[in-house]
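Structural prep section.
Before we set up the soaks we want a predicted structure of the protein with adenosine-5'-triphosphate in place, mainly to decide which crystallisation condition to try first. Input record follows.
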Amino acid sequence: MRKRDIERFLTGDVRDTDSLYELADEADAPAQARMRRNRDGEPAPRTRGRLTEEARARLVQEREAIAVDDAPPQGDRWSSWGDAEEAGPRPHPSWVVTELAAVDTDLGIIKTGKEADVFLVERAMPDSDRSCLMAAKRYRGGDHRLFHRDAGYLEGRRVRATREMRAMQRRSNFGRNLIAQRWAIAEFAALRELWAIGAPVPYPVQRIGTELLLEFIGDADGTAAPRLVQLRPDRDELADLWQQLIEAMVTLARRGHTHGDLSAYNLLVHRGELLLIDLPQVVDIVSNPRGHEFLQRDVHSACAWFVSRGLPGDVADPEVVANLLLREAGLG
Ligand SMILES: Nc1ncnc2c1ncn2[C@@H]1O[C@H](COP(=O)(O)OP(=O)(O)OP(=O)(O)O)[C@@H](O)[C@H]1O
Ligand SMILES: [Mg+2]
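Run finished without errors. Recording the tokens verbatim:
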């Protein structure tokens, strides 16, 4: 990046800080490669790319100032409702805060998962009692091993052209993000459809890129509902939860669907009510060539857990349940 670019930015000529940072990253790549070569001997240079540390600090300060100027007086940022690429089915439930003057506040992490991290977010109208809690499921940029493998491949080949290296890295970043976004889109679509037909799933509030905002399942103090696997239900509770699960699976089957990754980890229980979560891979039993296999797997997983907790085997019989679901799907 040229000094001239930075000066133009600081005088307000270039408004888009992201494109400025892209330039900076481009400029950094050869410098980082040089630093790697010098690892064993000389000290690392104090400049990064063509930006001095001083200029970089100023840039960061300016960027923060811009962000602060635009920040709401309370909360972390203005509500992102107006920027949503997709919103939940209408009519939006009354608890969903749709006012654009609302603010969003991150209240911490609920759980980190294999592909996504789930955070607790509050959306509230300042100086009023109107607020709601949401679970923000943020899909990560996917498979980091893929990225390392690409880098290793390049190293082995001793590719000297850093431009090529950067292109590979960019492509793999780009690819990873795309995959994460596809999962987010798939899960939002599944939740929209399932919520609309009355299946017990969290209401999908909105999607932006790789982030879904969902109805938070838990208490008003931010305590998330436990997963089924964490519970030790007594006999009556177990029978009741089983009944709810069968009803939920029937609701899906009537639309030709099965969860696709059903387990006691992907079921939440809130005040006795069972909810299905983690639905990006919902399977169409009819059109998916492995539809039956997925249905059988879901059924076996559900039956095995309930039987392990004491439900009689003739109640949670995989064959009986699978046949019931296939019939409901019009395939029996
Ligand atoms: N709407 C919600 N309300 C409350 N907690 C939630 C909600 N959605 C997800 N969680 C919590 O976050 C965890 C991870 O969510 P989810 O299963 O959708 O993501 P994941 O990336 O597949 O995670 P994992 O790899 O653990 O299966 C859940 O087990 C649950 O504890
Ligand atoms: Mg999960």
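Observations: Residues 126 and 312 are 52 Å apart (CA to CA).
Flagged for discussion at group meeting.
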